[in-house]
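In the previous chapter we treated chains in isolation. Here, by contrast, the input contains two separate entities that must be folded as one system, with a combined length of 318 residues.
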Amino acid sequence: MEVDKGKGEAEETRKVAEADRDTVTLKSSDGKLFEVSKEAAARLSTVLAGMIAGGSIDDNGTDLKQIGSEALENVVDYCNKHANSIPSAALISSSISFNTAPFKEPEEWERKFVDRLSHDALFDLVEAANFLGMERLLDVTCHKISEMMKGKSPDQIREVFNIKNDYTKEELEEIRQELAWAFYDD
Amino acid sequence: MEGAPPASRPGSDSLCEEFSKAALGSFPSPSWSDLPIDILISILQWLELPQALAFASVCTTWRAAAIGAGVPCSFAPWIMSWGKHLKETHVHGRCSSVVTCNLYHPVDVKKYYGVSFQRVALFFAVEPLTDG
């Protein structure tokens, strides 16, 4: 137990120390801790940027209850790789307007980064990127997912992603007619 | 009586079980059909029209996302223009050029989808502008 005397002072020192640190500690849903550069976190994630600016970063590990350790490790890994290998400004510019400005294709290292992931890991990472407001990582993961669909029919896509077909027979027939020009020869 | 565990609240307990069964479904791993709609829309922006239509046909949630993203899922008319770029691609050692048409939504012209055609053969190219 801490004595009251000097507590305020300790608190003050802790706060100063926290402000001086150039990393932030993130805690996954299963309690694992990860360090990430404060600069990269703030630049790549709007949510973390907001937390850093708002002072809601916990020195002992900021709780990210929605993100498991594997996904968080990938997020941190991505931030570190990004900080090391990218001339910054180039990638921040991607705008969100739908299909008006083509998105910048993933860089070679970003492709490799997502290519090594299992389906489940990719799924968790895309959700984590979305949750943390990491626009670029979301683009990169979504690009990877779109690549997995290319050249495939709806049936093949369902198979790849293990998705149940929840259409009725009638709806399916309607869709089949709509898509006949693109996918079916008859 | 008071210290005993709440033996029978039959309704809520079995309901809970039902719910968790329903939530887990038959897929123990995360279900791609339940991705949040904004993620699905982010995926759609990387797809050309034929692939976006295939996406829309996968399941009802994906269709809802596609409609939200402006993918023309019905026989609605769209405006077509030639895309600016002609691209050379090398597939399996053969060189072919591909031209892209853009299909614009008649109401919201900011939304458009690309469709790639092989320039020489004029075959409909489901495979979009990638180098393999």
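Residues 34-125 of chain B form one domain. Chain B touches chain A through 44 residues (CB under 8 Å). Compare these points with the single-chain example from earlier in the chapter.
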